[in-house]
Automatic annotation (TrEMBL):
Belongs to the RecO family. It comes from the Bacteria. Involved in DNA repair and RecF pathway recombination. Keywords: DNA damage, DNA recombination, DNA repair. It comes from Chengkuizengella axinellae. InterPro entries: ARFGAP/RecO (IPR037278), DNA_rep/recomb_RecO_N (IPR022572), NA-bd_OB-fold (IPR012340), RecO (IPR003717), RecO_C (IPR042242). This is DNA repair protein RecO.
């Protein structure tokens, strides 16, 4: 059967001397794997259109578990992402989130649109860290882990200006309940407000971002704890990103 889908290359695997297997996150069918024959050869018409982050319309023929790529019409190459190590690594983390948190043919048209917008904004020099945290929240929700950030996760009462949070419990706590729990920390009120906004935000509507470094660092710490507590995947690109950031901060 012949399929035609809009998708983004989220992983590439060399196969044999001249072929590639590309994992595409599609709007219509979720995550699919396709054999691109000859794509490793420099003169192949498939060489450039099977690169990581490429957004295109892919036509492939499928009879068994894996399809064979027939034709590609590029919609956006995102070539500029690969020219900047920071942008490339943040973008790599986003596509790895999709690749490793979703099963084959599992997907969401909404997450697809969020991913496209995220890559566009990172390429256009919007703050990649903030974009990443918003996208992490979308992926947490898709995976069934929706952090409770507007009420007490323990008793359900209003926070009443309380700024306590527990990643292991999955959200915020009122003053009374926070005193009963062991793994609780205080969070800056500004950081909590931003997390509440990010959780409801459609990335496609993201405007100008101007957040101080201390607040960004606190949001990063909280999001890292949420991801580690509820997803528990050793993301290779996140490790690389940490190494790059640590090196440039020295």
């Amino acid at each position: 059967m012949l399929y035609k889908v809009d998708g983004i290359v989220i992983r590439t695997i060399d196969y044999g001397e001249g072929n590639k297997i590309i994992v595409i996150y599609t709007k219509e069918m979720g995550k699919v794997s396709v054999m691109a024959r000859g794509a490793k050869k420099l003169k192949s018409r498939l060489s450039s259109v099977t690169q990581l982050f490429t957004y295109a319309q892919y036509t492939y023929y499928k009879t068994g578990k894996m399809g064979t790529l027939n034709d590609v019409e590029t919609l956006k190459s995102f070539h500029e992402l690969n020219l900047d190590i920071f942008k490339s690594t943040y973008a790599s983390y986003l596509v790895e989130l999709v690749d490793r948190m979703l099963e084959e043919q599992e997907g969401s048209a909404y997450i697809f649109e969020q991913l496209v917008a995220s890559l566009e904004f990172i390429q256009d020099d919007k703050d990649p860290q903030i974009i990443t945290h918003i996208f992490e929240l979308k992926m947490l929700e898709l995976a069934g882990y929706y952090p409770v950030l507007t009420e007490c996760i323990s008793c359900g009462s209003d926070l009443n200006n309380s700024t306590f949070i527990s990643a292991s419990l999955g959200g915020t706590l009122c003053n009374k309940c926070s005193s009963k729990e062991q793994y609780v920390k205080k969070i800056n009120a500004r950081a909590l407000k931003l997390l509440q906004v990010f959780q409801q935000m459609d990335i496609r509507r993201l405007g100008k971002i101007n957040i101080s470094d201390p607040i960004k660092n606190e949001i990063k710490m909280i999001m890292r704890e949420f991801m580690d507590a509820h997803v528990n995947i050793n993301f290779k690109s996140r490790y690389v990103l940490d190494q790059i950031l640590n090196y440039h901060q020295k």
